[in-house]
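Dear colleagues,

As part of the handover before I leave the project, I'm documenting each prediction I ran so the next person doesn't have to rerun anything. This entry is a single chain, and its sequence is reproduced below.
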Amino acid sequence: MNDQRPNLPPARADVIVVGGGHAGIEAASAAARMGCATVLVTQDPAAVGRMSCNPAVGGIAKGHLAREIDALGGVMGRITDRCGIQFKLLNTRKGPAVRALRAQVDKYAYSLAMQTELAATPNLTVAGGTVGQLLVENGEIGGVALEDGTEIAARAVVLTTGTFLKGRIHLGLESRPAGRVGEAPAEHLSETFAGLGFTVGRLKTGTPPRLHRDSIDFSGLDAQHGDAQPRFFSHATTGLTLPQVTCHLTWTTPQTHRIIRDNLHQSPMYTGRITGVGPRYCPSIEDKVVRFADKERHQLFLEPEGLDTPEYYVNGISTSLPAEVQERLVHSIPGLEQAVLIRPGYAVEYDFVPPTQLHPTLESKPVRGLFHAGQINGTSGYEEAAAQGLMAGINAACRVLGRPPVTLGRDQAYIGVLIDDLVTRGTEEPYRMFTSRAEYRLLLRHDNAADRLMPLGTELGLVAMESYRNLQARQQATRRELDRLDRRRVNGLADWPARRARSGAPAAGTSLAEWLRRPEVSYGDISASDPEAVADPAVAEAVEVAVKYDGYIRRERERIAKNAGMEARAIPEDFDFEGIPGLSHEVRGKLGAIRPHTVGQASRISGVTPAAISLLLVALERNRRQAAAS
């Protein structure tokens, strides 16, 4: 399909993806690479891959998502590595479950690289236009109609509309329709949802001002350097591509807080102009000052937005106060006394479609063949959007190709936790991923994403066989080293002269595995004195985690096995929850609204008690026996 004229959509496709943000990119790339004729429709093809907010990828839990996207064959990790200008592994002093990579990114290079990536993808056309209507017949998607009247037929449609559904920007007491600054909203598409049987909600997010680099005084600020030996998001990355930069740390002051409090009457959040719910875990600076009135200062990070731009992102002061107030509060912050605002911050309010109206495949319940991904589902963050987009694109392609759908369990991936949380529990505020949301987080580590998910990515055709063979070789090397550590016995203190002072030598007859289990011993202690130790840092890390956390990992696997029956116990699509005796009206209503696919999913619905699950199991068994008898 790449022989089509640029930005001119064909009349028919297998899969249509609406929106060119992080979710849309992954959805379109996956569907096309799985063999589907795919069209990505976006208002401005030159804005594909734009980083609307912070110029960074990863962080706690978000880094896990980015690694999982890469392991499944997505593009975010690879492009982030190519455009990264600072890499830092977070929480290195804590356990492996909560360590995660974060990368500062050249946002202009990132957007251009994404556009180049999509242009080179077979079966994919990127077309300019605004979708105004969904074409639906007998409850099944048939394509989309653009606002200019152009119709494109398709067997599956993925909506990744970001903040554009009836988007409205707020700056002080002024507001105007916009999906983000300088871009028109999608006014008509949102209106079609009610007629199709969807409910629609309203959310809000925001962004901080951008400052000119040359107007910032860095001399008294704390420098934040990247890692000297950086790790990467993608299994395919072998080294740095771009020069690396330094970020800086500063703080708000009591004067900053006074300026904000004195001007709350000009904040759209505190005058009732914004009705949408904002992100609790990434609040505006107004919200921080009001909600945490006892705090004398708040931490801010100054982050460069690229190598060839003077723009600096002030991470921590998202605001929608008037521009002149923003300038005053910025000038009250150390290092920013003379800062020049290139662009003020603003808030954006937009429609979303509560995600309990989706199946775990991200296919909508009211319309077959229609998938939702990203902020339309109530999430915030590039990584959350990209993860959903990848799974929606995979399942849209599976539907077209007649292949079984793909879902990930909560014990398989943070992506599985993310989607299960959304479709089972829903969200009333912008959803953000945290490690605390995953009950099996020691198994869902940053370092083992490829082990968990690359076999599936390879099976789907999204990961090259060479990458999979490299993974298998690393897994074999890990198993060999674990076996060697179990078998290798220490003969005496003379074997370990290099490490006596710090951790003490193992007693004669001790296996290396037993010694490595000591809290104060690392695999580096072994490699410093053992010429047979492995040199590959990925293998060394896998070995150390496997040895030190063996007992905890076994307990998590036992919990998974114990719950496997509930997760495997399917609930028929037409099952009558109203007919279960003993259930409360509230529980019946929730089960009927969400229509869980398994007993395990039902057990995670808010308000569904263990007693209700027992009644459900009895009813399912009775239903099974009646079906067998008939």
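The chain has four domains: 15-202+350-456, 210-345, 465-553, 569-629. The longest strand covers residues 84-90.

All the best with the project,
I.
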